[in-house]
C-alpha cells in the first residue's frame, strides 16, 4: 500500500485516522493560502481550500504517496465563524449559536501524484439554549480558543449540542466514512 500523508497538524484529524485503522502515516503541514474567491457556497469554499492545501502538500510528497487534506468551517446563516480571536469573540460566537442550528462543512481532498479527488460533507448542529454563565464557564476551560465556531463537539462543547443531523466526525474535522470511500478509489480499503 502507498504511504499515506496527512497534510494537517490537527490532533483531532490524527486521532480520527488512527480510529479508522490508519496508524502508520506521516504528517506534513504545508504552507497554504486559505483565501477563496467571492461568491462560493460553504461547500465550495471548503472544497476550494482543501484543494489548495493538497496542491501545496504535493510539493512536500513523492508522486507515490497518498496525501489527505481537509478544511472545516462553521457557518451560521451562511456567515463563516472562524477561530475566536479572544474570549470576548468566543462569547460572541457561542451566544449567536445558542438555541439555534448551524452548519459544519468539511472539504476533503485525496491526492496521489497528478490524480486528485475532492468532496465535501455537511452536518447540521443544533445548540441548546444556554445561559451566559454557562457559556463563560465553557470558555474558561480554554477548549473553544483553537476551534472554528468556538466549540469542540468531542469535548465539553458536547454539553452545548442538543442534536446533530449528519456525520458526527465531520464536526470534529474529518468525515471518516466519506474519506474511507475516497481512499478506496486509490486502492486503500480499510475494512
Strands, helices and their partners?
Elements: E1 4-6, H1 11-19, E2 26-27, H2 42-58, E3 66-76, E4 79-81, H3 87-97, E5 101-112, E6 115-127, H4 132-140, E7 161-165, H5 168-172, H6 176-184
Parallel strand pairs: 1-2, 1-3
Antiparallel strand pairs: 3-4, 3-5, 5-6, 6-7
Helix pairs in contact: 3-4
In words, what does this structure look like?
With 191 residues, the chain is α/β, with parallel strands linked by helices. The chain has one domain (4-184): Maf protein, CATH 3.90.950.10. It is 31% helix and 26% strand. The protein has six helices and seven strands; from the N terminus they run βαβαββαββαβαα. It has helices spanning 11-19, 42-58, 87-97, 132-140, 168-172, 176-184; strands at 4-6, 26-27, 66-76, 79-81, 101-112, 115-127, 161-165. Strands 1, 2, 3, 4, 5, 6 and 7 form a seven-stranded mixed beta sheet that branches. Helix 3 packs across helix 4. The chain is elongated, with a radius of gyration of 17 Å. It starts with a strand and ends in a 7-residue tail after the last helix. The mean pLDDT is 96.
Amino acid at each position: 500500500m502507498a504511504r499515506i500523508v496527512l497534510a494537517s497538524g490537527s490532533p483531532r484529524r490524527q486521532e480520527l485516522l488512527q480510529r479508522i485503522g490508519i496508524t502508520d502515516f506521516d504528517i506534513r503541514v504545508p504552507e497554504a493560502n486559505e483565501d477563496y474567491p467571492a461568491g462560493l457556497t460553504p461547500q465550495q469554499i471548503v472544497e476550494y481550500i482543501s484543494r489548495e492545501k493538497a496542491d501545496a502538500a504535493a510539493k512536500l510528497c513523492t508522486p507515490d504517496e497518498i496525501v489527505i487534506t481537509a478544511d472545516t468551517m462553521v457557518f451560521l446563516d451562511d456567515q463563516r465563524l472562524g477561530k475566536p480571536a479572544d474570549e470576548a469573540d468566543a462569547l460572541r460566537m457561542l451566544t449567536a449559536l445558542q438555541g439555534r442550528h448551524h452548519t459544519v462543512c468539511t472539504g476533503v481532498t485525496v491526492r496521489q501524484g497528478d490524480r486528485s479527488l475532492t468532496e465535501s460533507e455537511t452536518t447540521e448542529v443544533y445548540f441548546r439554549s444556554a445561559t451566559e454563565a454557562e457559556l463563560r464557564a465553557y470558555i474558561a476551560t480554554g477548549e473553544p480558543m483553537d476551534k472554528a465556531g468556538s466549540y469542540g463537539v468531542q469535548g465539553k462543547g458536547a454539553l452545548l449540542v442538543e442534536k446533530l443531523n449528519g456525520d458526527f466526525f465531520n464536526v470534529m474535522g474529518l468525515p471518516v466514512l466519506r474519506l474511507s470511500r475516497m481512499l478506496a478509489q486509490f486502492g486503500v480499503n480499510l475494512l
